[in-house]
Amino acid sequence: MKKSILIVEDEKIAAIDLQDTLISLGYQVAGIATTGERAIAMADAVTPDLILMDINLSGNLSGIEAAEQILSRHEVPIIFVTAYADPDLVNRAKKCSPYGYIIKPYDERAIRTEIEIALYKFGLDVAFRQEYKNLQDWLAKKTGELAEANELLKESEDKYRSILLNMQDLFFRTDIEGKITMLNPAGARLLGYEAPEDLLGRDAVTLYAEPEKYGEIRAALKEGGAVCDFPLTVKVRDGSLRYTLTNCHYFRDFLGQIAGVEGIIHDITSLRNAEDALRNANRKLNLLSGMTRHDIRNQLMALKAYIQLSEDSLGDPTQMAEFILAEEKIANTIERQISFTRDYENMGVMSPVWQ
């Protein structure tokens, strides 16, 4: 498709001559304007692909002023045409960022060269401006997405921080060498310290009551990538021990490489102590139960013996009375032992005071 060119020239003969030249070069002439005002109106009406603008126009507007107004409304390449190569004039024309200059008198080759270069440069500028706009749009979109992602990240971090601050279990992270890099406040308190910072950088194995367990955990992690409910005894700052269950796994960096170990340690010391107390109580109760049964059996054997003696002493009232008195004492003893047995049975039915 032929490129359309608007001619702005106040000399009629020169304008017609330029029109003929353009047509012979294969361009389409969009029109001829003889004043700056007319050039502005025609640029609005026909939207040419290029404008050849005479700088020195007769009338109220110079070619430079007309070009400024046209460029404020349209993206179009303008080539200034002048009979004078005056430096001051050229400097004034530069404000319009023209795409070329044609000095009168001109020949066809010079006109074609200036027009083709101007059209090529304008095409590059349009493409550049479009790419720049696309880049701005992309940056605006990415900036919005980044702002949204940052907001979501902040919310996630706030939730994560709140969970760590309020959870009662010990949460930890260690680097690949086993040094503590993160610890929540509850974890520091569990180990007898005032703040997590007191333990950062410390080798985790120094907190193990049984250091060999460290190697067992490492081996389990290497084999399965995670450890579940691993029984671990840890040392408290005051020298006491806490019994725990440990759950941990490897965590990775942004490259997917193993960066360390993170996990949760649940304190079961109270439960462990309660279980020990219950086992001791059961052991004592079983002992008492065995003793009570043995005592009652012995008393029954004695009672049977006295009954036999009573039968053999039917002819001796005095002896009979002594045997009967002994039998009553044995019966009272058995009654007390049976009463104790009932109390013992309640110990297995009634809830203990610590519950």
Q: Can you give keywords for this protein?
A:
19% strand, Beta-Lactamase, disordered C terminus, Helix Hairpins, single chain, Rossmann fold, 55% helix, alpha/beta, five-stranded parallel beta sheet, 10 strands, five-stranded antiparallel beta sheet, 9 helices, 355 residues
What does this structure look like?
The structure is a single chain. The chain is 55% helix and 19% strand. It is of the alpha/beta class and 355 residues long. It has three domains: 4-129, 3-Layer(aba) Sandwich (Rossmann fold); 167-267, PAS domain (Beta-Lactamase); 273-347, Orthogonal Bundle (Helix Hairpins), CATH 1.10.287. Helix 2 (36-46) runs parallel beside helix 3 (63-73) and helix 8 (269-312) runs antiparallel to helix 9.
Q: Quick one: how many beta strands?
A: 10
**Proportion in helices:** 55-70%
Q: Might you state the CATH topology name of the largest domain?
A: Rossmann fold
Instruction: Give the full name of the CATH homologous superfamily of the largest domain.
Output: Response regulator
- Widest sheet: strand ordering: 2-1-3-4-5
Secondary-structure element pattern, one letter each? EHEHEHEHEHEEHHEEEHH
Which structural class is indicated by helix and strand composition? alpha/beta
Low-confidence stretches: 348-355
Judging by the overall fold, what is the CATH architecture of the largest domain? 3-Layer(aba) Sandwich
Topology, element by element:
Layout: E1 4-8, H1 12-24, E2 28-33, H2 36-46, E3 50-54, H3 63-73, E4 78-82, H4 87-94, E5 100-103, H5 108-166, E6 170-175, E7 180-183, H6 185-190, H7 212-224, E8 226-235, E9 241-252, E10 258-267, H8 269-312, H9 317-347
Parallel strand pairs: 1-2, 1-3, 3-4, 4-5
Antiparallel strand pairs: 6-7, 6-10, 8-9, 9-10
